[in-house]
Design goal:
Structural class: alpha/beta
CATH class: Alpha Beta
Order of helices and strands: EEEHEHEHHHEHEHH
Number of domains: 1
Helix content: 25-40%
Strand content: 15-25%
Largest sheet: 7 strands, mixed
CATH architecture: 3-Layer(aba) Sandwich
Distance between the termini: 40 Å
CATH topology: Rossmann fold
Number of helices: 8
């Protein structure tokens, strides 16, 4: 890992109470949370940030394994003087990093809301399914463009096997409140077997903690924070309530 902290594009909305950190999906901008975080800023501190290579954040200069991503986030939190414990709200691939953060710094996490988040083993398993011809054409075209412009060198996705191995070496997941927000609407072009595998892994995420709940979004595919933002807010508020209950005991 590099010794210098990279520059991140972020938005910090400070109030009082719990600090909530939003982790975006792969190559997603923090604007994807625009329908969610305004409901939370009056009584909580909210941090939205873009990982390296997104928005005006620095480009990555090393492999973006989970260990590096978590270390960069931890440095940013120290830089901003945001004191733990934190509630993480993580979408898609961001859920892998939230999982790793919780195992790396268990005393600094009060809860996690996984929004259509990937299970640590899911991304590798999903590679067994071949996309249809149209999707392959789009993917191949994007890869060709990226190789020429190289904006996503050291990609998080390319390091997923390394991240998976890192996770296996870490401590058990802490016993904290967990919420799983799952979109139950299959997206177009997604194979049925792939979608069913994803749903099964969503259920497995419930096993991370005995204090876990699932929130199903019938009108959503992979982006409930956009299509059913109220459900995501409900899950966050529910998790906050469980955190407060633990603190009061």
């Amino acid at each position: 890992m590099t010794s210098n902290s990279p520059k991140h594009d972020y938005k910090l909305l400070q109030s009082r109470g719990q600090t909530i950190i939003f982790l975006n999906g792969f190559r997603m901008n923090f604007s994807t949370w625009a329908k969610v975080y305004p409901e939370l800023v009056e009584q909580n501190n909210v941090l939205l940030y873009n990982r390296l290579g997104v928005g005006t954040s620095n480009k990555a200069i090393e492999d973006q394994s989970g260990e590096v991503v978590v270390d960069n986030l931890h440095r940013l939190l120290k830089q901003l003087e945001l004191k733990p414990p934190y509630l993480l709200v993580a979408h898609s691939l961001g859920g892998i990093f939230a999982n790793q953060f919780a195992r790396t710094y268990p005393s600094e996490i009060s809860g996690i809301v996984f929004v259509e988040s990937a299970h640590p083993s899911e991304i590798i398993e999903q590679k067994k399914f071949k996309p249809n011809f149209l999707v392959r054409m789009i993917n191949d075209a994007m890869k060709f463009i990226e190789k020429r412009s190289n904006p996503y060198k050291y990609s998080e996705a390319d390091c997923i096997e390394q991240t998976d191995e890192q996770l296996k070496q870490l401590n058990d997941f802490p016993e904290i409140p967990v919420s799983i927000v799952t979109g139950t609407k299959k997206m177009p072009l997604v194979p049925e077997e792939s979608f069913n595998l994803h749903l099964s892994y969503q259920t497995e995420l419930l096993d991370l903690s005995e204090n876990s709940k699932q929130f199903l979004c019938a009108e959503s595919g992979h982006f409930p924070q956009i299509t059913e933002a109220e459900k995501v807010v409900e899950a966050i508020q529910d998790t906050l309530s469980r955190i407060k209950l633990i603190k009061s005991q």
